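Running this now, will post back.
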Amino acid sequence: MLNQGDQVGPYIVRRYLGSSGIGAGYEVEHGAMGTTHWLNVLPLSSPRVAVELSDQFGFVHPNVLTTLALLQAGGSMALLTDMFAGRPLGDIMAEHDMSIGQRLDIFREILLGVGAAHASGILHLDLRPSYVLIGGPIEAPIVKVAFFRIARLLKEIDEGGAVSTNRFAAPEVMMPGIELGASADVFALAAIGYEMLSGRPAFSGNTPAAVRAKTMGKFEPLSSLVPEVPGAVSDAIGQGLLPRPYDRHASIEEFGIALFGPNFHITHGERREVQDGTARPASSRPTPIELSRAAAPPEPQTEEDREAAMIPRAVLFGGLGATLAFLVLIVSIAGLGAMSVGSALDQAGALAGPTTKASLEVSGLVDDVIALGGDGARLLPLQRAFNNASNQKKIPTGYRLYQELNVQLEAAVAKGRDPEAARRIQYELDVAGNQFEAYVGAVQAWNEATSSFVGGAAVRLGIAAEPGPELVDMLEGAS
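Update: finished.
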């Protein structure tokens, strides 16, 4: 916690502003220049923050909160931005009874900001109303989108994964290991627009039912909730909420044109050099980082430290069933209090259901791959084995089918068979593959966490501490 009068590099803390959603926010003043800025002290410190946010420093657009520098504030990193007297979109929507037209005007400005950032290669990937700031009079609001990528990055560093839990996140953002693009932000914008215009979320919360509805594209059409919303707007937002990225609009500009007509156009932002806390016009790249000399920088991390912080992406398998129950019994009876084991067990157990669902979806792709020229003689027996498998063996048999589908699809692509259909099938397989890998990773983490003491506990209990044969098969197949 910083106090009034504390110095962070050349900046003097004037007052605490409260939590910003990414950290503790402060109003600071440049000691020599007298300029006022917003300083957000982040909850952790990592070299990755500086590296991965460097493309944002000095990016200027009327609808984007300009990020100026990364400072050292004691043992923490702090993000310096322009000062903007705005409040979160959600608060503004709750306090003002705005017409549909006013809401669409604000939504248009949001799209302009995100679209300009995309044009400069900057994705947000964690859009939500709290990161959209509204200032000025409500009759002529000033709209700025803030905190591009930072919240997702902090979560990834802190928890070892970047699976978003916010209800505006696209389905692929909620899956580990999927490569994300502009369509992820299109989905989030559509979810924000849906809520702005209807007063209710398209998908509520992160319950299994809500996540399933999102991944299946089940939501009530906007026009049925709010008849005064133009049909084109309802249709555009509906397309933006589709679960598969390739079914959504290809870009923010395409989304904007569908919403507002052909006159919608993204204006590009500028790249400016950051000097003395101000983004000034420059002919060269912006200064990426401004490190304060007021405190020593954090100790550089070793390669091993970085690997540990990043935690390999989880993508997984297996029928846990009785094996999970067995481990719970061992841990509880042994009374060893191993929190890491409990965490690994929880993660593997939580992933079992979604991975079984992924196996079912993989089985549904068999006919599509055969239609592209895949070898039915190889695929159909594997599909039958999956269909006839017990619940405990659904995941390993589904994984073997997934592997063969990839082989057959690759062969079809090499022959030039319907590349558009092949691309769509490959996306479905990639999603399932990431779920399989995540499950395998969780099971492996569980095995590692238990290897130091479960064997001894099992000996005392007089039972075997080895995983079930189907789990062994799965892990061997994944290696």
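Residues 321-478 form one domain. More later if anyone needs it.
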